[in-house]
């Protein structure tokens, strides 16, 4: 009966009604600028949140954090921290943290290569990033293999294609490029293929300075213009527990001084690098994030810093990290409470420990995603394509996860609830046991009423079998291949190739820049 | 490094620490009795919810509903409804609906075969049911095939096994049993293999009376004891739009009179059997649910009725139903608002339109699940194993979805946030860059700190490949087979076989009971 009714609808369409302009109401939300529509969900009481914050300050004040970079220790000492140069331990007073929290911006305007790609990173806004930092890459046609620049470039095209991904990320480590030159290749790919906010690895000042220069060249910015706004970002991972290594500390300082964004993310796996309890892992995470934040604000008050959380748990039998677990979700919800306690924009982490794009991968990714959404994360990293706890990214999983992100994005659109949407007249028009396919209420809305899926196939078993009986993952192969073959970079991005290549050629001739460790 | 640390932990265990009793804190939530820990999420304003309720009453009052059963029309007319016997249209005044809402219970105690299986169906409690009503069944070993009694019985064993499934359901239609005797076979399977709340199809009074008698025999209840409490339930589907057919109307009356539970669920697919807008679909759903509720309360004031919602949308290109879509989630969230407006316990619907247990199936099922959880549904039907929009249930998907339900169940457990959980001393005990595997804080907690997965495999790619490289769905085959081969029914249930068989033999000899339509 539904099928017959659908035929009626097609007939109606052929009659030309669909050409009429006017009253059709539009569903389409702006995927490029999402506001989280959900109430943030707490897992801890307000008192407990305050106690975690307070204990984190005690950790910094009484126990301290090991800071391996002399320059960072000097900056912290200068501001009043108690530094033991022998042990490299730095004890940071709560007054210092409180001053840093006061100077850190609550809202960070981040500039893409086009105004429509600009972001406001603040509590309430919601951005998604694909899986990042994977040494390996996998797809159904070419199998699992070490990351290459070609795969990195392909991924950039896919990230550019989907508006629901808001920033670029270091999706794949291109292991076929020498580490002295790798940042040129990844910077070039990001800046010539996309107009979204690019990522820069904090692997020492020489590489960071090179990368900043590439952003300035691509965006046509003077040094002072660049320093006055945020045009790229990095992720700083502390070496939990309580340790900040040389490139990470240097990155905090370099990005702060340049006014660029640091996402300071302790990676606190409960039971391994952090206490086994959710509250304990959050306490350690909070202490380390506060230490990084303080260093950034001392390097330059007002520096754009995103509070970072990526606390999950390990399998206590094997020590293997796990994601999308109940503890991961709870830790993310608790991190959201801590972020709101401080008022800072913040990031969470998605992902899955599954080895292929199967039901486990989808479920874990969804749970991590909902944890982030319900925690009110400003930035959700690893939200699409991440497998093996980050050891690979999958072309197909990128596509199937993007469907999930688009579904969440659709939920950001208001649900009309006025008399016209309620539609008493439509209900009156259709007789008992009839159908609404050709009701006027339907005809004015059917083109945009519903989300149209990217990869989901809603055909019945017979039709699906006849058309090859492909899984969503198999269908995703066709989708990413089609996007890649049709891809056209934004003109503004493609036009930067000349000036970037000139810079890269000169710097390469000079020997490039080795990573600092 | 994590691997080394895990070895340390194993060594610690061998040293015997794990034998110590005492301070270990327990995570384990009681899966049999879940309270929804989430704040309900609104999609409509309070005014809009009131307007939908009001418009639904207008629909019943001004447009009416077609009621095909003369007895139902007579009951409604007797209470003041305006009935046109020619058209079978019944117009129900808002005073009648308001009286029904006043007499419907806010909390329904439902009795299983064991006290630990008793449920309190009310706002705030959360129960899950597997996929129901499928004509086909599928698994990786035997393929997709029409439902049989053997498959039904196997499914009952699996449903009984998992505490996170709270009631039984008519998972598979056993097409190899004549319809005159099918209710005996499905009733027997439910009552002899499980002590959970059984389902009874409303396919006419003769079958319903037979089924009630089987419940009374199995539970050892007199007729008056049975009528004084709820021992089974049915699902009533209206024929949207605005039509109540003979077996459904009869079911409402029969279940109400017997004090058994009716879940009154209009199946309002927006754009097809309901207006294309979420608010419009909800308005029609609400009107039909209110009509069913009113009939039930007239048949017996105080009859246990669950408000039902299963509103999703269709693909406007093909008319195919879709689930786990943005519109499905929004409709579920709105239904939760309407249920809270009335104060009634209510049901939602999960599921997926995917044809196999793939990434699409997992994502759609998750979205529908989160819609239900965030809407505060008392009963979430089709939460596990449902494929093809209900045309099949999958043994493997049942297992992978149960992992998702168990993850949600874990989130119902409180997250400890006291000083002991925050663990300042644990953080002090572990040196910078060290690990927490052998910290005292870890050792007292590691056995129960984290959820242990049912089917998820967190081993690394090498180990996973060596152990066969199986997908979660493939691993699920081994799990359901193991559960079936180890299955022991509850003694109390198995013990009912004799008395049930005697009844079934007698009734079969009498010719059974044909379904009424």
UniProtKB/TrEMBL annotation, chains A, B:
Any one GO molecular function term: trimethylamine methyltransferase activity
InterPro entries reported for this sequence: MttB-like_sf (IPR038601), MTTB_MeTrfase (IPR010426)
Gene Ontology terms: biological process: methylation
Annotated segments matching region Disordered: 1-39
Short name of any one Pfam family annotated for the protein: MTTB
Entry EC no(s): 2.1.1.-
Family recorded in the similarity comment: Belongs to the trimethylamine methyltransferase family.
Protein name per its UniProtKB record: Methyltransferase
Originating species: Mesorhizobium shonense
């Amino acid at each position: 009966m539904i099928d017959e009714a659908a035929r009626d609808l097609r007939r109606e369409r052929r009659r030309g009604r669909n050409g009429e302009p006017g009253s059709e109401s539009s569903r389409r939300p702006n995927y490029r600028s999402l506001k989280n529509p959900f109430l943030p969900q707490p897992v801890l009481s307000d008192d407990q949140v305050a106690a975690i914050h307070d204990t984190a300050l005690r950790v910094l004040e009484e126990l301290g954090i090991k800071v391996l970079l002399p320059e960072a220790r000097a900056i912290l000492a200068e501001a009043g921290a108690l530094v033991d140069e022998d042990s490299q331990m730095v004890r940071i007073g709560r007054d210092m943290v409180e001053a840093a929290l006061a100077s850190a911006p609550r809202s960070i305007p981040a500039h893409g290569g086009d105004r429509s790609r600009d972001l406001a990173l603040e509590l309430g806004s919601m951005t998604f990033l694909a899986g990042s930092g994977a040494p390996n890459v996998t797809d159904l046609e070419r199998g699992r293999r070490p990351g290459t620049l070609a795969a990195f470039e392909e991924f950039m095209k896919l990230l550019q294609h989907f508006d629901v991904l808001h920033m670029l990320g270091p999706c794949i480590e291109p292991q076929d490029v020498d580490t002295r030159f790798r940042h040129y290749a990844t910077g070039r790919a990001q800046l010539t293929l996309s107009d979204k906010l690019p990522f820069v690895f904090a692997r020492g000042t020489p590489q960071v300075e090179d990368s900043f220069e590439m952003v300035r060249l691509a965006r046509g910015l003077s040094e002072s213009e660049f320093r006055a706004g945020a045009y790229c970002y990095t992720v700083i991972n502390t070496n939990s527990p309580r340790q900040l290594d040389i490139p990470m500390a240097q990155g905090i300082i370099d990005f702060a001084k340049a006014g660029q964004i640091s996402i300071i993310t302790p990676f606190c796996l409960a039971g391994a690098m952090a206490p086994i309890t959710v509250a304990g892992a959050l306490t350690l995470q909070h202490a380390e994030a506060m230490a990084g934040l303080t260093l950034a604000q001392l390097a330059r008050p007002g520096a754009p810093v995103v509070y970072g959380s990526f606390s999950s748990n390990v399998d206590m039998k094997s020590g293997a990290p796990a994601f999308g677990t109940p503890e991961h979700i709870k830790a993310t919800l608790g991190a959201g409470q801590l972020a709101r306690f401080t008022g800072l924009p913040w990031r969470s982490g998605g992902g899955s420990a599954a080895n292929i794009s199967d039901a486990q991968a989808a479920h874990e990714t969804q749970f991590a995603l909902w944890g982030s959404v319900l925690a009110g994360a400003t930035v959700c990293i690893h939200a699409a394509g991440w497998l093996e706890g980050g050891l690979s990214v999958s072309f197909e999983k990128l596509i199937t996860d993007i469907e999930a992100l688009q579904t969440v994005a659709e939920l950001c659109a208001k649900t009309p609830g006025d008399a016209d949407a309620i539609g008493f007249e439509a209900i009156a028009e259709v007789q008992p046991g009839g159908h609404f396919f050709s009701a006027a209420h339907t005809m004015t809305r059917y083109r945009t009423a519903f989300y149209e899926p990217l990869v989901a196939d809603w055909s019945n078993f017979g039709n699906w079998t006849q058309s090859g009986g492909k899984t969503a993952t198999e269908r995703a192969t066709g989708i990413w291949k089609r996007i890649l073959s049709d891809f056209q970079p934004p003109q503004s991005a493609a036009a930067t190739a000349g000036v970037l290549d000139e810079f890269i050629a000169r710097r390469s001739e000079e020997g490039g820049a080795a990573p600092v460790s």
